[in-house]
Specification:
mainly alpha; 495 residues; single chain; 18 helices; disordered N terminus
Length: 495
């Protein structure tokens, strides 16, 4: 199976699902599913399913709820998302495909790999399974891990609450880490491994980095384990990403495919004033990596700004699309699961919470540097050095724990743009940073980089969304599915 051909077929299936087509469901095993495939086909299939939804639907949700993007005022594709007006049917296909596609393929990979002694495929599949469960758990607040994906013996699984699910995920990661020595002794997986081409050291570090991330959900309770991971210093220094997309139908980045190629308009995603004003206020050159120049500003004699945004959710704004900056999404953009920049920011936050300002600073500086380097090119040379130097706009300032954490999360929020927007959504709920403004971005008192509540919000005044709603596709067939809770209800790790 050629790499691109495999991706094309899998993305064609995943990305062209419509409401009228039957999709895979956690409570409905597909009788036509090929269950005897080899791990070398099942693993890339599971990773691709995961990338298609995490890099597509959930990257979209994260981009709007992290206020990187907002809906174009002249179109309506994402208005329900931007106004927090979701229902239990809004993201059924995301849930269905991650469970019935990604996690199902990954579980089969583990089962067949264990039987054949292919521990390299087993480790990769277990770490990716843990990652998928982590994403679902943090978006929904409960997920069936202990009793899920066992259709023959348990077609109606019970759900583990968020805290228990995290314990299960950490157990999976510990198991994968323990098997890396056996895996490393086998021939490399090569191109069947879309993340690391078979490098088991990277898979071990990915597992430990994800473990650190989950432990940080409850720092006080997990301080000893967090310190142990920091002392081991065996965390990701490279990106865990799927970077094999090409500019061709059904072979491109999932968000590009569904937003730019498949919709009847490619004008939906525009610059949110929240992020744009922060970048402009700090003369941050990454603005050119995130947003297109306004069409209006390119007209001879025009005085319109080169970059211009929209107040989050402001559909009453009366202007043409040529006056706001469109979000940059390219067909060849990678799908990131974890990144080296994210791990540096995680370490910086951990050291800050431990009161080690020196190590917090060094890791913060590295995180900002990596975040700049991600978009560095001949056409857009980027250098973080003047920004993090003493007196620079992003220079780290030692102080109270909260002041240091705020600096770290603020930069982590910017770094998540166009790559891991769902992660900055999690971080804002977890830490409260970026802060939420009491005035609009158009107000003279507005502090650039602070969230605002969507102008068209349908939830209680001053509140932001904290979760997705448990999907109808699960509750319709499973009496053990949790009752739907409000979109604003906190999880145990939320601030």
């Amino acid at each position: 199976m050629k790499k691109i051909y495999s991706i094309a077929l899998l993305l064609l299936f995943v990305l062209t699902q419509t409401a009228c087509k039957k999709t895979l469901d956690i409570n409905d095993a597909d009788p036509n599913y090929v269950g005897d495939a080899d791990p070398k086909y099942l693993l890339p299939s599971g990773i691709t399913f995961s990338a298609s939804k995490i890099g597509g639907d959930l990257q979209l949700v994260g981009s709007f709820w992290s206020q990187h993007y907002t809906q174009n005022n002249n179109s309506s594709q994402y208005r329900t998302l931007d106004s927090y007006n979701l229902t239990i049917s809004s993201y059924n296909s995301t849930w269905n495909n991650l469970f019935g596609g990604g996690l199902k393929d990954l579980k089969l990979t583990m089962q067949k790999s264990e039987a054949q002694g292919l521990w390299n495929y087993y480790v990769a599949a277990e770490v990716m399974s843990a990652f998928d469960y982590h994403i679902l758990n943090d978006f929904y607040g409960a997920v069936p891990i202990k009793s899920g994906l066992d259709y023959d013996n348990n077609p109606q699984p019970t759900y583990d609450d968020s805290k228990e699910a995290n314990l299960q995920i950490i157990a999976m990661l510990n198991d994968a880490i323990s098997k890396v020595p056996q895996a490393a002794a086998l021939p490399a997986m090569g191109n069947e491994d879309f993340l690391f081409t078979g490098d088991m050291d990277n898979w071990r570090q990915f597992a430990k980095s994800l473990k650190l991330k989950i432990l940080m959900r409850d720092f006080a309770a997990n301080t000893a384990q967090i310190q142990a991971l920091l002392q081991e210093d065996d965390l990701l220094e490279t990106d865990a990403k799927m970077d094999v997309f090409v500019d061709s139908e059904n072979k491109s980045n999932p968000l590009y495919e569904q937003d730019r190629r498949k919709l009847n308009t490619a004008a939906n995603m525009r610059a949110s004033n929240t992020l744009l004003k922060f970048l402009l206020a700090n003369n941050d050159p990454r603005v050119a990596a995130f947003y297109e120049k306004t069409v209006e500003s390119q007209t001879a004699g025009s005085t319109w700004p080169v970059y211009s945004g929209i107040e989050q959710g402001n559909y009453a704004l009366t202007q043409t699309a040529t006056r706001s900056s469109r979000a940059i999404v390219l067909p060849t953009d990678a799908v990131y699961f974890m990144s080296a920049a994210e791990v540096s920011f995680l370490k910086a936050e951990a050291f800050a919470r431990l009161g080690n300002a020196g190590s917090a600073k060094s890791n913060y500086d590295n995180g900002v540097t990596l975040a700049f380097e991600r978009w560095n090119s001949a056409n857009l040379p980027l250098n973080a050095a003047p920004f993090i130097a003493p007196g620079g706009r992003y220079a780290f300032v030692a102080g109270s724990v909260e002041s240091m954490v705020e600096q770290i999360i603020q930069q982590k929020w910017v770094a998540a743009t166009r790559s891991q927007a769902w992660d900055s959504f999690f971080d804002q709920n977890r830490t409260g940073y970026p802060r939420v403004s009491t005035v609009a971005t158009t107000d003279a008192a507005y502090v650039p980089g602070r969230y605002t509540v969507s102008v068209t919000s349908v939830i209680a005044a001053g509140q932001l969304p904290r979760r997705l709603l448990f999907p109808k596709s699960s509750s319709d067939y499973n009496p053990n599915a949790p009752k739907v809770v409000p979109i604003t209800e906190k999880m145990y790790w939320h601030k």
